[in-house]
Specification:
Elements (H helix, E strand, L loop, with lengths): L1 H15 L28 E2 L4 E2 L7 E3 L5 E6 L9 E3 L3 E6 L8 E7 L3 E9 L2 E10 L1
Parallel strand pairs: 1-3, 2-4, 3-9
Antiparallel strand pairs: 4-7, 5-8, 6-7, 8-9
Length: 134
């Protein structure tokens, strides 16, 4: 009986395209050596599920309404906060109950438009992340 279940699970994984839990890149996406987040056609890269940091300065990504990404920074509690200009993506603080030395924010697309996130990274100038919600 256990062998039969194992065969069924293997067949299910094969037919459903089990990818090991990682999101597959879209067919239109190409490698982005500059890290800007743009595809070859100049369209923003899908940002769903992506974890961004201050090192992603200049990133431009696309989120559909309801999709999320995450911003993670090595900032102490009470330190400088990222800010959002635009109303298409909300910047929602995530509680850090394990005290990892990092702070995190959920970036949730709520309506059509463009939002620029200014990311503090003392002592360097702030990084800018741009999100387009079609």
């Amino acid at each position: 009986m256990a062998d039969r279940r194992l065969v069924c699970l293997a067949a299910l994984a094969l037919f459903t395209g089990c990818g090991g839990g990682r999101e597959r890149p879209t067919a239109k996406a190409t490698h982005d050596p500059g890290g800007t987040g743009a595809t070859a056609a100049g369209a923003p890269t899908p940002a769903q599920g992506r974890v961004l940091t201050g090192a992603d300065d200049g990133f431009t990504g696309r989120l559909e309404v309801g999709q999320t990404a995450q911003l993670r920074l090595p900032l102490l509690e009470g330190g400088p906060e990222p800010t959002a200009q635009g109303g298409s993506v909300l910047l929602i603080p995530v509680s850090n109950v394990t005290a990892t030395g990092h702070r995190a924010w959920e970036l949730r697309a709520v309506r059509r438009g463009t939002t620029n996130i200014s990311v503090p990274r003392p002592p360097a100038p702030p990084a800018t992340l741009t999100f387009v919600v079609p």
